[in-house]
Design a protein that fits this description.
The protein is mainly beta. The chain has no helices and 22 strands. The strands form four sheets. A seven-stranded antiparallel beta sheet has the order 1-4-5-9-8-7-6, with no helix packed on it. The two termini are 19 Å apart.
């Protein structure tokens, strides 16, 4: 989650309130320096290596890195006929990346003549994250998307009694969960596997990635598909939740110390 996504202050469904009327957030853009060294690799070649990247935050979107053209291997780029128009930034031109026989079509774009009220985007380029083979922040792998410097995630032990019920049947109950407090998201309660009725779980082929925690696998419970997940190999900062099971607050009845929690409205609501 981010400043401009989900329940963040400038997202689609802000969780809090301001002390004065705020204009519509649509089209809101914030452009800032990033102090991190960022690299992207494709077909064994480093396509971009930048210590002067910018982060663009835009309402309704995850943050994106924009790189100075001088930090990009322009000898690997081929201009294409593809163009798109953003009402807030202007018309974008696109380039493909070619290394030997491999081509990432329309992998990056730039606004060489941005709108007058847009950020100073001239000379900067942005990449589709998943069109590169690998990303590095400093010397560590970066996955899924650019990490937001305003994003925070805390993993805390909790002795509160947490119960998950679905269609009147108790699925999980524990007083030794790990609760994850994450910017823009409801608290997620991670149960020890032995405190979950695993006979009610059925395997799912669904997998998703989180830039902060890693790649998650899913379970269904009865007719409720992909209602629970776990991280078999989380990132180093989240090793404590490895193998623990969490449930979507949006799709189950969740009680904390006997108090039924309201089902939140998020991008995972159905």
């Amino acid at each position: 989650m981010a400043l401009t996504v989900g329940t963040g202050p400038f997202g689609q469904h802000p969780a809090g309130s301001f002390n004065r009327h705020m204009p519509e957030h649509k089209g809101l853009i914030y452009f800032e320096d990033s102090p991190r060294r960022i690299r992207a690799l494709f077909a064994g070649e480093t396509v971009v290596d930048s210590r002067h990247a910018k982060l663009l935050h835009e309402h309704g979107h995850l943050p994106l890195y924009y790189f100075p053209e001088d930090d990009i291997r322009t000898d690997l780029l081929e201009p294409t006929e593809h163009h798109t128009t953003c009402p807030w930034k202007g018309e974008a031109s696109y380039w493909s990346v070619r290394v030997g026989d491999r081509v990432a079509e329309n992998a990056l774009w730039g606004y060489d003549q941005p709108r007058s009220d847009a950020p100073p985007l001239t000379g900067y380029r942005a990449f589709y994250w998943n069109k590169m083979d690998e990303w590095l922040e400093e010397d560590e792998p970066a996955i899924v998307h650019a990490r937001d410097p305003y994003h925070r995630t805390d993993v805390l032990e909790s002795s509160r009694r947490v119960k998950v019920t679905l269609d009147g049947e108790v699925v999980a109950e524990s007083s030794r969960t790990l609760v994850v407090f994450e910017t823009g998201l409801p608290p997620r309660w991670y149960f020890p596997p032995e405190d979950v009725r695993q006979e009610l779980l059925s395997d799912s082929d669904t997998q998703t990635g989180c830039a902060y925690k890693g790649f998650a696998s899913y379970w269904s419970v009865g007719h409720a598909e992909d209602v629970a997940w776990y991280y078999p190999e989380p990132t180093r900062d989240f090793e404590r939740i490895s193998g623990r099971i969490a449930f979507f607050n949006e799709h189950v009845d969740l009680e904390v110390d006997g108090e039924l929690q309201e089902r939140p409205i998020t991008q995972w609501s159905r």
